[in-house]
Amino acid sequence: QKEVEQDPGPLSVPEGAIVSLNCTYSNSAFQYFMWYRQYSRKGPELLMYTYSSGNKEDGRFTAQVDKSSKYISLFIRDSQPSDSATYLCAMSGGTGGFKTIFGAGTRLFVKA
Amino acid sequence: DTGVSQDPRHKITKRGQNVTFRCDPISEHNRLYWYRQTLGQGPEFLTYFQNEAQLEKSRLLSDRFSAERPKGSFSTLEIQRTEQGDSAMYLCASSADTGPRIEAFFGQGTRLTVV
Asked: Which of A48, B39, B42, B115 is least enclosed by beta carbons within 10 angstroms?
């Protein structure tokens, strides 16, 4: 079993839809939970991070962490074609040392 | 600031050759990370530097791989005797010493193809 599981998609939605992206994990020691956006043939771009549990909002993006269920989510409101990309969840901290564990990424397509 | 810079952007090499990649982090960023990403997968951790000290190295990194950050600024990643399985995108990231230890800024990566 992988430490971080993420549905690879692809996920296709119409413009303006609310998008929900999710990851599950197995290591309860993780403390930092991140979401990155990656366009084709580019490096990942950090969207937001959360420390421990709770919600965090930044513009159209909301990140949620449920440590009791080992489940994290990223919601995108009013999705735009420019949001079409691969979204990577990532986790670090605790007993995992300095490394960050990434999910495989979910490909999102937002249709105009 | 131009962000994290990686050079070259693309590299094609024959099996058995040595290759070296360079990463220039954002200036004054003490933390520097190397990752490897293959198609359809998320980045995999290779190694981490705090200034010039290499504090962690993945067990995935065989003896053919070596990384340096001699003056705590730019870093190099060398792969000796390349194999076809080394074909991947090699990513560098950096972050400041203050704040959470997360990979805040990634470069555009070096895409390696071993033929």
From this structure: B39
